[in-house]
Amino acid sequence: MHFALPPRKSSHPPPYARSSKSSPARRKQIQLGALVACAALALIYLATRIFSSSPDRVPPGTPETVIVTLIDPEYMSKDYVSRIMENRINYADRHGYATVFPKAGEYELAGSPRSWALVPSLRHAMTLYPHSTYFFVLSPHALIMNPGLSLNSHFMAPKRLESLMLKDKPVVPPDSVIKTFSHLKGDKVDLVLTQDGEGLCQGSFILRQGDWARFFLDTWFDPLYRSYNFQKAEGHALEHVVQWHPTILTKLALIEQRLLNSYSIDIASRGGKGAMYQENDFIVRLVGCELDSQRNCEKEMDPFYQQWKKAVAGSK
Predict the structure, then answer these.
(1) What number of other Cβ atoms are within 10 A of residue 176's Cβ?
(2) Cis? peptide before 174, omega within 30° of 0
């Protein structure tokens, strides 16, 4: 029997391809390409860092404080609105703040009183200025009478605020069992309010931007509260959420009324003469003028407006 023999190995092995070495010119091209690629990646990284909208990065020129005044052109004359805006803008320009004048008719309230527009208008302002720290909400029926006072240093500086806070104070006078915290530090406060003889005052307050502020506004504007038909609409709803939501109470500071909310007339149930405007007070507010048929907001504001104009002219 014959078996096939394996093929004989050649005594002349096949030549193998030599590994060609790159020329010096080729190596330089590769090195140059690598350098260009690294430089391009570095530029892309820097551009994304500079122009990204990271929440931790505050764009240059961002105002620390924004003044928000809700106006209602359907019920206010052009002259009245013009005076309100002039007053706010003058004050903002002095301190580097911004102003927002939302209109009450721009917000869907599902049949609730128009005064409820205060809440979504503030949320709107926060979206317009997402990097600003404080939002000063001031009723259109009010004037800033002492423009030299800075909101940031006179009210919101932590040590200053701690000296102004009313601690262990009934949230809703005269005898609410819910009281302000006695150990709250100034740098932990996100909402600064005043109260008069009847309750909390939403016509002049300061809110710090942040997750807590958004939670607070969403809670306040809850459709359930708007459907309750509170006698004072958003005012009574505010008192409810502050008293019965510990998460909100933990960030609240009350300060003396005339620091942020002096009244133009003597209303016994709301503080009487002790709550009335005095010279050098920060704010004068024509509280309730739009609800009383016996009063006229424009006529009531005029002497205070003239006084403010003289003060502004004298300070130039």
Answers:
(1) 15
(2) yes
Mean pLDDT computed over every residue of the chain: 89
Name the H helices within the chain: 24-51, 78-95, 118-128, 151, 158-164, 211-220, 223-226, 234-244, 246-249, 257-260, 297-314
Type of residue found at 167:
K
User: Torsions phi, psi of 4, nearest 5?
Assistant: -70, 135
> Is the pTM here over 0.85, yes or no?
no
Taking only the tens place, the pLDDT of each residue in 144-190 is: 999 999 999 999 999 999 999 999 999 999 889 999 999 999 999 99
pLDDT value at 57 more than 50: yes
Among candidate residues 118, 149, 159, the one with its CA nearest the CA of residue 135: 118
Question: What DSSP designation does 18 have?
Answer: P
CB of 145 within 8 A of CB of 304? yes
The β-bridge relationship of strands 200-208 and 191-195 is antiparallel
Question: What confidence tens digit (pLDDT) does each residue in 63-85 have?
Answer: 999 999 999 999 999 999 999 99
Cβ contacts of residue 240 below 8 Å, gap of 6+? 225, 230
Residue with tokens 């090195």: 31
